[in-house]
Amino acid sequence: MKKMSSAEVRQMFLDFFKSKGHTVEPSVSLVPVNDPTLLWINSGVATLKKYFDGSVIPENPRITNAQKAIRTNDIENVGKTARHHTMFEMLGNFSIGDYFRDEAIEWGFELLTSPEWFDFPKDKLYMTYYPDDTDSYNRWIELGVDPSHLVPIEDNFWEIGAGPSGPDTEIFFDRGTKYDPENVGVKLLAEDIENDRYIEIWNIVLSQFNADPSIPRSEYKELPHKNIDTGMGLERMVSIVQETPTNFETDLFMPIIREVEALSGKEYDPYGDNMSFKVIADHIRSLAFAIGDGALPGNEGRGYVLRRLLRRAVMHGRKLGINDAFLYKLVPTVGRIMESYYPEVSEKKEFIEKIVKREEETFARTIDAGSSLLEDLLEKLKADGKDTLSGEDIFKLYDTYGFPVELTEELAEDQGFQIDHEGFKAAMKEQQERARASAVKGGSMGAQSEVLSSLTDTSVFNYNKSTLESEVIAIVRDDERVKSTNDYGQVIFAETPFYAEMGGQVADYGVIKDGEGQVVANVVDVQRAPNGQHLHTLELASELVEGQKYTLEIDTKRRNSVTKNHTATHILHAALHEVLGNHAVQAGSLNEVEFLRFDFTHFSAVTPEELERIETLVNKEIWNAIDVNTIETDVETAKGMGAMALFGEKYGKEVRVVTIGDFSVELCGGTHVGNTSEIGLFKIVKEEGIGSGTRRILAVTGQKAYETFKDQEKILNEISSQVKAPQLSVLVDKVTNLQSDLKQAQKENESLSAKLATSQSEEIFKNVKEANGVSYIAEQVSVKDAGALRNLADVWKQKDASQVLVLVAAIGDKVNLLVASKDKDIKAGDLVKALAPFIDGRGGGKPDMAMAGGTNAAGISELLEKVGQTIEQ
Fold it and tell me: Which residues does UniProt call coiled coil (predicted)?
């Protein structure tokens, strides 16, 4: 077995499969694109689902990758076990309808055991397989594997809902009796007993059936195109190659752990209790990579996951004696470890450090606030004579306020309180079960469409024409290929001017005409078929026949509006970089007819001043009348030009580069104006947050932008008329003066109200009654608003007139009730709730003052009569 670094293990895996004709696909962002079933990219195959379900046909059916992934279902286990991680790398090789079982198993065995490659001892490998999958069993035997090393496991069948599924065969490495002191042996595998001896290093999934939950597995139909999906965990593989006790002693983690040793002054013992070191090393990797890919800490979704990881790591830092912000200092180390294959962490080091440090400092304040909440909680328990902090309260502090459990328990025990550990575990388990129930493991794939996948006829999209004549080369109706249709269907033409929805740009609409110029069909949607052709969805007025020629006409007014918005999106993206920073990258877009929508990563709301700068920058590029140039080239040349890839796009060998002067250079397959002046005008109409760390800008261009400005001008003119400003230029001064006058009038009004309250109080406070030894005043008063009631209460507080005050007033159609109390045994909030029903109202407040609103003025008299009786109760 060769001694290798983690980088060498990764590269050897990719090189092997490249030698077998596989295309090496780069690792994609941890933030999923166009896949609402996933919170994170959680496996190597997650990014390839479009190939497996047949919605897209890859250029090469043989693919290999090293994919970064995040799984957070069991965060609490990280650090406790040898192989639990939140972020990990999955190495995989995939076949989309090409090779199958024989090659996949043979190549897996060759890569692991050949002296040219990893050179593992064959007698150290064990394989599990699905009991009914005798083909896999026989293939392992053919390769010389001892039958005693083949273990049938009923769970070796991969399926997630409807769609591709099949048996899988797993490969384990035997680390020997050193990790199995009782020498239980292969029984550990056969009975699925948790152990450190047999380490799973590779899973080969044989995707050969279309799963259907409504029928027994034995009746699943074979897929039209069988697939191979494999996964090798890099961290486990490196641990075996480097012969370390756990994954954490490998070169993927130890440089981070050494940094933590230096920061804490504590020493890491590979065989001791090192949970805090492991948690920190694991979590900072996830944080660095996720933030580098555009996710930001927050209160929901991905942001909440990152916040939990960071806070957990910070608390483990405190356990090691590190009380200041320190995680951000580990980011450069993460970058150095991974930069041979993932340079992005080092490239975005400063930004990642900034976000991590800011979040650490915020959490320090959270700890202070949480301590205060806990103190209040413990004081209440003392007052109630209780001595146990409930598991529910511990969990609420942890889950709602982010207050660490360990800290809660420590502070509570210091004050002599018992801890309900079991109650907390139960609450935590409920939350985990809810999370697991809502999670979609891997995200199910759609069923393959054999008809669409088999359409390989060449079809060309013409960017430069809005009308052209073309032949029908395929018609699909109800998932069957037909020769003609007269009501609806999906159609592919040899050439088309219709843009298929892609890259955030909506599809073209238009009509199909026959040779006599009569409209045969309306085009209501255009999507890309699995092999890339533009698939037109038609509503037909008369028959359309395969092999015949028709005239295709797009709705040019619609296209022009969308095109202006799409080009404006490119300029907006560049403007965001200039104003907010390069971290503000696209996280989704929509270029519609009437507006454009652009989602981007940013850690706070964009200020009005920043929005104004962004809007001005975009308009300057429009007014400068810059030519928009598009060239077709290869990916490497495009990168050399500084081209920025748009979010969610898949690029082939040939790409289109769209340049707008030296302001914007992007890879894009959409349609664009010839010169920025064609956009006319750009106006931001809304900026908002749509999730943790993600902002959205809605904007309009051209005529819509002009109409937006005119609408705003109309509003300004109406305001100008209302405040009697002769010109818009003096409107601000006029409004400022009016606001000043209003504030002065309000002050005078408050002063008069206070004087009136004082005057009224002389008469009101004379009528003191008593109930159950409590003195009270209950009066109906004539006031203009609820504020005047509060003024009377303020006067009452300064006097020694009574212990309880009840005031009620009919103000217009409403009835307002105020209760104030100086008696600790009579809570104003309780009393107001008891009296409010008499006026068909409800309300509440604090023990010393409360208010209610109602609608039944006829009930005022009865309310006042019942005050004494209510106090006695």
Answer: 728-762
Q: What is the model's pLDDT at position 107?
A: 97
Please indicate, yes or no, if residue 741 is contained in any of the structural domains.
Answer: no
Q: How far apart are CA 528 and CA 515, in angstroms?
A: 27
Question: Greatest CA separation found in the chain?
Answer: 107
Higher pLDDT, 627 or 503: 627
Up-side HSE of residue 646: CA atoms within 13 Å toward CB? 30
Q: Establish whether 421 is an annotated binding residue.
A: no
* Count of structural domains within the chain: 6
Domain end among 423, 441, 459: 441
Q: Is 119 left (phi over 0), alpha (psi -120 to 50) or beta?
A: left
Rounded distance, CA 58 to CA 50, Å? 9
User: Closest by alpha carbon to 169, among 211, 144, 138?
Assistant: 138
Tell me the pTM: 0.70
Say if residue 798 is exposed, middle or buried (CB neighbours under 10 Å; 0-12, 13-18, 19+). exposed
Per-residue pLDDT of 47-57, as tens digits, reads 888 887 778 88
Asked whether residue 264 falls in the same domain as residue 231, the answer is no
Run of H or E including 103 = helix 101-113
536 annotated among ligand-binding-site residues: no
3-state helix, strand, coil in the chain (%, to 5): 40, 25, 35
- pLDDT the model gives residue 455: 87
268/244 Cα distance (integer angstroms): 14
Q: How far apart are CA 665 and CA 619, in angstroms?
A: 17
**116 and 215 together in one domain:** yes
Full domain range(s) for residue 508:
450-554
Q: Are residues 208 and 234 in the same domain?
A: yes
Distance of CA 146 to the CA centre of its chain: 47
| Residues 431, 357 share a domain | no
Cα angle value 825/831/832 (rounded, 5°): 145
Task: Say if CB 622 and CB 681 are below 8 A apart.
Answer: yes
Q: What is the pLDDT of residues 115-141, one digit of tens each?
A: 999 999 999 999 999 999 999 999 999
Give the separation between CA 8 and CA 238, rounded to whole angstroms: 10
Do 565 and 676 share a domain, yes or no? yes
**Tokens, residue 291:** 């933030």
Phi then psi for 538, rounded to 5 degrees?
Answer: -120, 145
In a domain, 742, yes or no: no
pLDDT 10s digits, 178-226 = 999 999 999 999 998 989 999 999 999 999 988 888 899 988 998 878 8
Domain check: are 570 and 498 in the same one?
no
How many other CB atoms sit within 10 Å of the CB of residue 444?
A: 18
Question: Could you tell me the CATH number of the domain that includes residue 798?
Answer: 3.10.310.40
Please report, for residues 99, 228, 259, the alpha-carbon distance to residue 105 in angstroms, rounded to integers and kept in the order given.
11, 10, 41
149 is in an annotated binding site: no
CA-to-CA dists, residue 129 to 123, 189, 227, 231, 445, angstroms: 18, 11, 17, 15, 23
CB 813 within 8 A of CB 869: no
Do the annotations mark residue 316 as ligand-binding? no
**What pLDDT does 117 receive?**
96
Q: Do residues 227 and 260 share a domain?
A: no
Q: Which of 325, 349, 376 is the last residue of a domain?
A: 376
Do 207 and 73 reside in the same domain of the chain? yes
Q: What one-letter code names the amino acid at 861?
A: S
Distance, in Å, from the CA atom of 786 to the CA atom of 798, rounded to the nearest integer, reads 19
Asked if 202 contacts 483 with a C-beta cutoff of 8 angstroms, the reply is no
